[in-house]
Amino acid sequence: MDLNTLWFLLVGVLIAGYAVLDGFDLGVGTLHLFTKDETERRIMMNSIAPVWDGNEVWLLTGGGALFAAFSPVYATVFSGFYLAFMLLLVALILRAVSFEFRGKVASQRWRRCWDVAFGVGSLVPALLYGVAVGNVLRGLEVDAAGRVVTTLFGLLNPFALLIGVLGLVLFVLHGASWLAFKTEGALQERSRRQAAWAWIAVIGLYAVSTVASFVQSPFLFEHWFANPRTWILFALLLAACVTGPVALRAGRYGRALGASALALVTVIALAAEGLFPRLVPTRPDLAASLTVYNASSTPYTLRVMLVIALIGMPFVIAYTAIIYRAFRGKTILTPESY
Amino acid sequence: MDVVLLSRIQFALTIGFHFLFPPITIGLAWLLVAIEWRGWRTGDATWVRMGKFFGKLLALTFAVGVATGIVMEFQFGTNWAQYSKFVGDIFGAPLAAEGVLAFFLESGFLGLYLFGRNRVSKGAHWFSILMVAVGSTISAFWILVANSWQQTPAGYVLRDGRAELVDFWAAVFNPSTLPRFFHTVDAALITGCFFVAGIAAYLLRKNREDDLARRAARLAIVFGFVVSVLEVFPSGHLHARQVAHTQPEKFAAIEGLYSSTSAAPMVLFAYPVTPPPDLKAKVEIHGLLSWLAFGDMNTRIRGIEEFPPDDRPPLWLTFVSFHNMVVLGMYFIAAMAWGAWLLKRGTLWDSRRYLALLMISLPLPLAACQLGWIAAEVGRQPWIVYQLLRTRDAVSTIVPAGDVLLSIVLFSILYLLLGVLFVYLLVREIRHGPEPVAQ
């Protein structure tokens, strides 16, 4: 495997890691927006309070890795989606501070305000990530000089919105599965039902999205069907879609959470399979696409970064697991809670 | 409006606001390492309550720091795409390293520190705040590696229309990395000390939590005195020496040296005017600058006039911010020295005037940090990478000026709101004071 391909994989791992970890934070936040009971809202927020910040770091590291390994892609996509990124940033800022701010004043209006900030700050990113992926899969419009020409409304095209909704539903599924795992009583029961419905929506939306992708961007399927990896990933996705609902019904919530995580990872991996070796397909001229080969850093930099990643990431995984373990069990409200 | 100017304004606004929080976070985290150590090893309830109290303030500060920090990581791509393409091979790596080696550590363990006190052993809990302090310090290292590379680039070649990394260690430990790292981290420690000292002073003046506040004040003042001295000497001195040797235009601008001369004077006070570059109401010491910067009073130092006008940084802002930072740095030494002396005499608790001074001094290190950074970044202009890429050639060319103006307005409103709420909630938390002893 060459360095460029390896880094495609590593950036993909960071993106998948982010989706699996901050994904349930975003899902919980989205569901929080539609939750009426104050105690339930507090439990939902506190179920992710000790881990959300570390989870969000996967986004920053993924962005940093993209910058380091494929800087023309980082520059092109981030500046090309300018206003969408600004919207994303405002939402993430609101979510981040809402944890700390919400409980500090004992006023109902204050808490409602920060509930909305927390909810919107979770829902908007959950939607926009899929919209961004959809636009990448669709291909970015470039002019004759190779400059990206797109507006915020251009980014909200039907295909991208479809992928956005798919992403949102996946995150809601994952968040509901997390809540079923971490809570008890009425909240757990409601989360279980939400997750069950979400599975149906995910399966339906994924089928539609795959067909839509085939129509929108046939180049994604050039090597897709012939590739044995595709079918392995597909089998895993199928396994998740079966295991998840079954586990929910059986009350095996740990397993159900594993299934929603697997669904996220395989959906992302299948898209990555289609995308490779391109990183940013372009339209109308596909040949102008940014690929892992024409938009990467030097082999020296990729090697240096690989060493940093190989040294750093095992520690990250180890202590992250230890920290999660410290917070195992059902979420209960304590004096330290938000 | 010009997209270059707008992008610069936005960067200045977002980084300026963001950098109000990491100095507090880093300084306070290290102080909490000491406080929680005492609480753990002695089991003394006062130290534990102190830890919980300042821990809450750390949580609040950290949240706003993280929120405003995400913006920075993205902004290189959104607003400075040409820069990102040109230096991405070198600049991206420290940012990624910051994520892998620092952000995960501080953010992960902060969750354990804030919520895991009763879930893990006391030793493990102390370890978590140590990791927050270490992580935030490593974070400072890597971001300063990146920024220092902009100031004194090294370990690269120009190839294929971009800067390419050829020597990682030379790039990481470029001439300005270490002086700036020590100076920035020490500044954060000063900030933390004045933060704790100011709050302890408030409690003492209100005759609340005497035992807790005295211990906090003692810790903050003794430690604060040491780090305040170190910041000027050797850190400030070594950093200024580095600038003199490797960034002569910036040195001339911050010191107000407009004509090249040997036995160059150190200007203690002046008002810079242009054109042509001149200093009004000058108070200076003959030969001191040459001696300090190069070890020899007769060394000829290049004045700003030697450099092409197009290569000179803005003079007024660079000079004024640098000098006011130095004034504050001297004040910090004096303020902490006075406190240390009162401590020795045993009269600190009764010195209401001094305690009031400590209270109003709380935010001053933040002002010094801002001024120092203005001197550093404005002093680097017109370059975004010194002598390699000009700032005006580095912006994203495909982003319309109108979009940047919109995002400036958006961030300004949001940050104003966040700033006001942060101060409001912080003051509220301080007024509430530490949790009372459990009955």
CATH superfamily of chain A: Formate dehydrogenase/DMSO reductase domain
Q: How is the biggest beta sheet of chain A arranged?
A: 2 strands, parallel
Which structural class do you get from the secondary structure elements of chain A?
Answer: mainly alpha
Rg of Cα set of chain B: 23 Å
Q: Order of strands in the sheet with the most strands of chain A? A: 1-3
Specify the CATH class of chain A: Mainly Alpha
Strand order of the largest sheet of chain B: 1-2
Arithmetic mean pLDDT of chain A:
96
Please give the number of β-strands of chain A: 4
Query: What is the rounded Rg of chain A?
Result: 20 Å
CATH fold-level topology of chain A: Formate dehydrogenase/DMSO reductase fold
Shape of chain A: globular
Q: Give the N-terminus to C-terminus distance of chain B in angstroms.
A: 63 Å
Number of structural domains of chain A: 1
Number of helices of chain B: 14
Query: Average pLDDT value of chain B?
Result: 96
Using the alpha-carbon principal axes, give the shape of chain B: globular
Write down how many β-strands of chain B occur, each being a DSSP E stretch of 2 or more residues: 8
Keywords:
heterodimer; A: 338 residues; mainly alpha; Formate dehydrogenase/DMSO reductase fold; two-stranded parallel sheet; two-stranded antiparallel sheet; 12 helices; 4 strands; 76% helix; B: 439 residues; two-stranded antiparallel ribbon; 14 helices; 8 strands; globular
